[in-house]
Amino acid sequence: MSEQKQTLGEFIIKNQSSFQYSSGELSSLLNSIRLAAKIVNHEVNKAGLVDIIGAAGDTNIQGEDQQKLDVYANDKFIQTLTKRNIVCGIASEEEDDFISINSQDKNHQNKYVVLIDPLDGSSNIDVNVSVGTIFSIYRRVTPVGTPVQLEDFLQKGSEQVAAGYVVYGTSTMLVYTTGHGVNGFTLNPAIGSFYLSHPNMEFPEDGNIYSVNEGNYIHFPQGIKNYIKYCQEEEGDRPYTSRYIGSLVSDFHRNMIKGGIYLYPQSSKNPNGKLRLLYECNPMAFLAEQANGKSSDGFTRTLDVEPTELHQRVPFICGSKNMVEKAEEFMRNAQ
Ligand SMILES: O=P(O)(O)OC[C@H]1O[C@](O)(COP(=O)(O)O)[C@@H](O)[C@@H]1O
Ligand SMILES: [Mg+2]
Ligand SMILES: [Mg+2]
């Protein structure tokens, strides 16, 4: 029974001592994210019944139509983190600019900034397909007690102190890392607690699932086209199976459990790809590497990419180590 398993709250406290700067602040921050996830989960689960599906009527800075659930999730995460006075700044897919959380107040000693994709897989909200939330946490680089700056957010992914996602699927899970492996917790809705259901999650080094929107095939770079053809050839353990949910979190989660590769490459339509470096690719790349997987833009390790803008996009290849290396080989050979 789940009650015998460790709860997320217990796990966070128990593992607090493994944090380099352990002061309890990161634990409280993770607990706030846990709370916000439960609040959003409650709304997601009854999406068809309440007025939470459909477009909100505005577009975000990426020019995308914001869905009502995008806005709801954004508000709930920002409110929960702000109310608990646990961070000095927040950046979100749904906010044009970063938000300073009374960081100019001398008494405000919080040292963490959070970057979030409040609702990932927005195109799946109305059709009852699993969606998610993604978060990434950094220590600020500017002095505590001074106004938070853009440079506190534009840090390389390798500087993350924690990252994770929530997947609102057949069950709701919160999966995260603080740089000591990846652990997954499943929400028991009857009790309202997350329980450690997937300790030490790891990508199999090899897999037979590839996830890419093949509708964009003709626009892909030759290297990616060659890799997709390789996945489809009758040879050895191929052809691989094509699975594409259209929610990054859900495709990543499945591939981490079963072995597989997710690709959102650049294309003639999206020269830098579609996914955002800071609150989609970096957190998933940190998780992937902590779970013995790999991630790059085809050439450069995602976590080594130097950020220049809050909402910048990058090509993204992520998953089982040997599969990502094979895709990178095709990219190099096609140069
Ligand atoms: O519909 P496409 O072009 O294949 O894009 C799907 C991808 O875009 C995303 O929906 C982008 O994320 P958001 O929904 O947070 O904007 C990913 O979750 C998903 O993998
Ligand atoms: Mg997203
Ligand atoms: Mg989103």
TrEMBL record:
Pathway: Carbohydrate biosynthesis; Calvin cycle. It holds the Pfam family FBPase. It comes from the Bacteria. It is found in: Cytoplasm. Mg(2+) 1 binds at E93, D117, L119. One of its GO terms (biological process) is sucrose biosynthetic process. Mg(2+) 2 binds at D117, D120, E280. Residues 204-331 form the Fructose-1-6-bisphosphatase class 1 C-terminal domain. InterPro entries: FBPase_C_dom, FBPase_class-1, FBPase_N, FBPtase, Fructose_bisphosphatase_AS. Binds 2 magnesium ions per subunit. Its main location: cytoplasm. Keywords: Carbohydrate metabolism, Cytoplasm, Hydrolase, Magnesium, Metal-binding. Its cofactor is Mg(2+). GO terms for molecular function: fructose 1,6-bisphosphate 1-phosphatase activity; magnesium ion binding. It catalyses: beta-D-fructose 1,6-bisphosphate + H2O = beta-D-fructose 6-phosphate + phosphate. PROSITE patterns: FBPASE. PANTHER family: FRUCTOSE-1,6-BISPHOSPHATASE-RELATED (PTHR11556), SEDOHEPTULOSE-1,7-BISPHOSPHATASE, CHLOROPLASTIC (PTHR11556:SF35). Homotetramer. Belongs to the FBPase class 1 family. This is Fructose-1,6-bisphosphatase class 1. The gene is fbp.
